[in-house]
Write a structure and sequence with these properties.
- The chain is built from 9 helices and 10 strands.
- It has a 6-stranded mixed sheet, with helices on both faces.
- Helix 3 packs across helix 4, helix 3 runs parallel beside helix 5 and helix 5 packs parallel to helix 6.
- It is α/β, with parallel strands linked by helices and 260 residues long.
- The longest helix is centred in the last third of the chain and has 16 residues.
- A hairpin with a 2-residue loop joins strand 4 and strand 5.
- The site of adenosine-5'-diphosphate has 11 residues, from strand 2 and helix 1.
- The site of magnesium ion has 5 residues, from helix 1.
């Protein structure tokens, strides 16, 4: 763990700094006899977009839930900046404020307006004043062109708009890391583009993102790095070209052949 002391070092001439935002170190997680994560280690640097790929059931969601403290790791460590978030003494609410999360579906409460949805956690969990939360929420809704939907209810929005609101909500506390777990998988194909465009905009603004996705062309185009999970371990960790085009691993080639 001695390298943890170096994480404030930044390469001044590089657009991609080398500050480590997230570090997984030999993370293990089982459910009963099923070993889902069998020693996962990788880093995410500031401003990096990392696509987490793998077949259904390969543990992408479990990994993200461990990062978001919705699941406890059995073994290994997860660092968010300098904080060991797997330390049972860590302050969970504080850590969650530093990580934004969007899931595949059911992100918004149907009986609450967009504004209420976006401000709720900031007010209830992070103890922001209503004023502060609403000012920040309106600013985020403005940025995604949805200021005029602040008092609308989720069922008055398209699925794509709902996911964009969910992303705005995840950005409320200006998190160091954004976790996106298959956020376009439940959408009509027509609506996928607007959500992916928003992710691309966030990337352009320097947001650090870990995203599980099956959108292979987007991953190829937008991700800085691909981490491919298989049988509970990392099968590949490299640039999109290295992993998706150049890997000689038969199982990797087989996996990507399903998406061509
Ligand atoms: P992915 O997101 O890659 O599709 P998941 O992380 O959802 O994969 O699931 C990985 C494996 O862990 C699957 O076999 C799944 O059935 C199992 N699993 C996930 N969550 C639980 C749970 N809470 N209890 C028992 N098994 C689980
Ligand atoms: Mg999943």
């Amino acid at each position: 763990m001695s390298e943890m002391t170096n994480i404030t070092t930044e390469a001044s001439d590089s657009p991609v700094s080398n500050k480590t935002v997230l570090r997984l170190d030999d993370v293990r997680k089982s459910f009963g006899n099923t070993q889902v994560l069998r020693g996962i280690s990788f880093d995410i640097h500031q401003h990096e977009v990392v696509a987490l790929l793998g077949p259904s059931g390969s543990g992408k969601s479990t990994l993200m839930k461990c990062v978001n403290l919705l699941e406890q790791v059995d073994d290994g460590q997860i660092w968010l900046g300098n904080t060991d978030i797997t330390d049972p003494r860590a302050d969970q609410d504080k850590i969650r404020a530093r990580i934004g999360v969007v899931f595949q579906q059911f992100n918004l409460f149907p009986h609450m307006s967009v504004l209420r949805n976006v401000t709720l956690a900031a007010i209830k969990v992070h103890h922001w004043s209503k004023d502060r939360a609403e000012t920040r929420a309106m600013e985020l809704l403005e940025r995604i062109g949805m200021r005029d939907k602040a008092s609308a209810y989720p069922d008055q929005l398209s699925g794509g708009q709902q996911q964009r609101v969910a992303i705005a909500r995840a950005l409320m506390t200006d998190p160091e890391l954004l976790l996106l777990d298959e956020i376009t998988s439940a959408l009509d194909p027509m609506l996928v583009g607007e959500v992916l465009n928003m992710v691309a905009e966030l990337k352009a603004q320097g947001t650090t993102i870990l995203m599980a996705t099956h959108e292979m062309s987007f991953a190829h185009e937008a991700a800085d790095r691909i981490v491919l999970l298989r049988h509970g371990v990392i099968a590949e960790n490299g640039t999109p070209a290295e992993v998706m085009d150049e890997s000689q691993d038969p199982e990797t080639i087989e996996f990507f052949s399903h998406f061509r």
